[in-house]
Amino acid sequence: MIMSNKVIQNVEKTTAEYQQSTFKKNLPKYIELSSWILWFPDLFLDLIKPQEGGINIHFDQRIFLRCATRFFSLYGCFPRGWGKTWSEIIAMFIIAIRYPNIALSLTAQTKDSAAELLKDKITEILRQYPMLENEIAKTRFNRGDAEVFFKNGATIDNLANSQLSKGQRRKRINIEEAALLDNVLFEDALKPIVEVSRYTSGKLSIVNPEELNQQIHFFTTPGWKGSDEHDRNITMIKRMVDLKGEIVLGSDWMLGCWYGRGSSKSQILNKKKDMSFIAFDQNYGGKWTGSSTNSLVNINKLLSCRTLEEPIFETEAEKDEYYIAVDVARSQSTNNNQSSLVVGKVIRDKSTNRIINIDIVNIINIPNILNFTEQAIIVKKTANKYLARKVVVDGNGLGSGLVDELLKDTTDPISKKSLGCWATINTDNKPEVSNAKKCVFDLKAQGIQSRIITTFIDMVDSQRLRLLAKKHDSEFSSYDKAEFENKILPFIQTDLLFEEVGNLKLKHLPSGALTVEKVVKKLDKDRYSALAYLLYYINEYESHIKTERNKFEPSSMFEFRQPKIRSV
Q1: From CA 464, how far away is CA 462, in angstroms rounded?
Q2: Which of 50, 324, 407, 520 has the smallest CB count inside 10 Å?
Q3: Residue 219 belongs to what H/E stretch?
């Protein structure tokens, strides 16, 4: 079909107008602007900052933002209050604006935690930079889910650092709380998330070789030496030196404090007085702590033990199997070691009666200024709540005083009710009452330290030990904080136990025996000792099979069937 001259003229006119349009004439400048935004994201934020009410980005944050958009992988180790979450999320905003249809995700230990981080920081960013709202089509924040939809088709949402994220697909991810990761989980569930690269929009729809596809950034406060993430840090530093497209950034509390971010110097130094050495070094000191060689247990295995979501404060049924262990200390000084009480629940296989798991459902610290009578009252009240079958007590040194008090008939000074009189099951010590309940195991650790240590290591390595999960402040509700002793304190005590174990090194004595040695001498190990005693007792004395069908009778070796005589 032959087109008329008028139609041809109209087409040529339209083409000429397009070629002379403002967009066409300025296309090279737009291309240069988009590259400039990625190379200098901090200057772009300065450009869109409101004249009144805007914020000033500090020099260290400018370096962070430029690294986040320029490098294939960034590992950021920063203290509490530095502002790493704000910085990483605003960098994600810039990436989303620049690349149409890109899918970005922020991951954290739980999906709820990641959602709260996104919701909080996105609200803050949009308040600080109102112009960014023009790029957003809509936002959706529900419990456990946070999504930002951009007008160009890009999205930012949340995922969990767990197997629940396996099979998900995003173009780039930022991993929060990376110090709690283990490499098996990362390789199996998180790394494949970015397997598929972004395709460009338009007719070509190709993978841009100059784009940082499959980018993964890691952000955390420092954790434990010897962990997979500590090793990843070291590896990335070496690759940074070799110019492999990776970079590691970090600081302690003084950098952010210098610029006026987070807590003031006096506030942080006051926190140092109240926190343990290891907790302060990790949260504010910018240091990976613990032993990188000869550590008592594989720190990744110990991290994997933290799977219990809720503590238990009393038995739920008489058939439940609870045991308690106590490491004893008594001193007028609050700086000295404190007595620790560990509550363990034994989970058995119903068919074979074998122990599957030992759940540490609660840890109680007993004030060290209490005398042995007062300590005995706390131990008995706790045991009665759980209907504990046995109570293991460190009977060495000062511990003998607590054992003596447990063998007396005790009355609760508040309720005036009898707490009972106990007897030991492994010594000749006489209780105050002749028919006292036999439930105290008077542990003498001399000569069996090697066995205690190897049992502890085996329980961690086999994952039979289960501890309360790691939780951050943002995961606790206002109701939880009002019920601090029941809702939060058990998790804090488990954190302190974790610190004690992470601070221990395995030492071989000339005699061939094993012992443990503290890396930081000032840090206690009472919670570890109580836990180790509990695991030792259960493994040595309560792990035997009690089912009748498995009961072995020596006489059965001499039972024979009557012979059959064949007739000839």
Answers
A1: 5
A2: 50
A3: strand 216-220
Q: How many CB atoms lie within 10 A of CB 223?
A: 24
The closest of 105, 103, 139 to 123, measured between CA atoms, is 139
- pLDDT tens-place string over residues 489-542: 999 999 999 999 999 999 888 888 899 999 888 888 999 999 999 999 999 999
pLDDT at 547: 43
Q: Which residues contact 281 (CB under 8 A, 6 or more apart)?
A: 222, 287, 289
CA distance linking residue 251 with residue 286, whole number of Å: 6
Residue matched to tokens 């302690």: 252
**Ranges of the chain with pLDDT below 70:** 1-20, 330-337, 474, 545-568
Cβ atoms 547, 353 nearer than 8 A: yes
Residue 356 Cα distances to 177, 221, 316, 348, 539, angstroms: 29, 34, 19, 5, 12
If phi over 0 gives left and psi between -120 and 50 gives alpha, with beta otherwise, what is residue 351? alpha
Asked whether the whole model's pTM tops 0.70, one would answer yes
Single out the residue of 242, 237, 238, 195 nearest to residue 216, CA to CA: 195
Structure tokens at 470: 């790691």
| Block residue for tokens 């309720």 | 415
Q: What topology is assigned to 28-273 in CATH?
A: Rossmann fold (3.40.50)
The answer to whether 178 and 218 have CB atoms below 8 angstroms apart is yes
Kindly report the CATH number that applies to the domain delimited by 305-540: 3.30.420.240
**Is-same-fold flag (28-273; 305-540)?**
no
Where in the chain are the domains? 28-273, 305-540
| Residues 190, 224: Cα–Cα separation, whole Å | 21
